[in-house]
Design goal:
It catalyses: orotidine 5'-phosphate + diphosphate = orotate + 5-phospho-alpha-D-ribose 1-diphosphate. By secondary structure, this protein is an alpha/beta fold. The chain is built from six helices and eight strands, in the order H-E-E-H-H-E-H-E-E-E-H-E-E-H. The strands form two sheets. The protein has a six-stranded mixed β-sheet with strand order 5-4-3-6-7-8, sandwiched between helices. A two-stranded antiparallel sheet has the order 1-2. Bound molecules: 1-O-pyrophosphono-5-O-phosphono-alpha-D-ribofuranose and orotic acid (ORO).
């Protein structure tokens, strides 16, 4: 098990923006965690990925990184574990291989989704349904930041367990 006592404070100091932000869900928030600001820093990305390795469920066969922000994280976790990565598009490409999930075939494989931020769970829900339609078994998402309302289980409706490196409460508590 990796311990990283300052990760929450370091991510918060790097990523927290304040202002008025329209989120993917259409919600308007006064706080935004810009994941690209930690993903762009290899040492921080490495620390987040190290924590994710500990959170991966046994039996994971493929790491499904969601476009766009989940992809660098999934790649780093893949490098640490040797598990193959998938690069999961929001929409299938309309030419060439026309794939939604780039990389190995997912049919019959156990995919753990790797995501950057969860707010309502909408993006992860869409990807879960799409991967299941392709024949994957999807039971767990590992995310860097879970900012969904405390005590709620945003993906229970699709039977998905959320495992997060950091919650909104962790980031608020670590705020300098
Ligand atoms: O839980 P939700 O309410 O769906 O919100 C979280 C999603 O919103 C962002 O996606 P966006 O499309 O903005 O991200 P990208 O920059 O990774 O493409 C974020 O990366 C999550 O995928
Ligand atoms: O819900 C979102 O769209 C969202 C929230 C957030 O804090 N960071 C992010 O990248 N997306």
């Amino acid at each position: 098990m990796t311990t990283d006592a300052t990760l929450a404070a370091d991510i918060d100091a790097t990523c927290r923006l304040t202002g008025e932000f329209t989120l993917r869900s259409g919600q308007v928030a006064d706080t935004y965690f810009d994941k690209y600001l930690f993903e762009a820093q290899p040492a921080l990305l490495d620390r987040v990925a190290a924590r994710m390795v500990d959170l991966l469920p046994d039996g994971t066969e493929l790491l499904g990184g969601l476009e766009l922000g989940g992809i660098p994280i999934a790649t780093m976790v893949s490098a640490k574990t040797g598990l193959p990565a998938l690069f999961v598009r929001k929409r299938a490409k309309e030419y060439g291989t026309a794939k939604l999930a780039e990389g190995p075939d997912v049919s019959g494989r156990r995919v753990t989704i790797i995501e950057d931020v969860i707010t309502t769970g909408g993006a992860v829900r869409d990807a879960t349904r799409a991967l299941r339609e392709l024949g994957a078994t999807v039971e767990v998402v590992v995310c860097a930041i879970d900012r969904s309302p405390e005590g709620e289980d945003p993906l229970a409706d699709v039977g998905l367990e959320v495992r997060s490196v950091l919650t909104r409460a962790d980031l608020d508590a670590a705020r300098g």
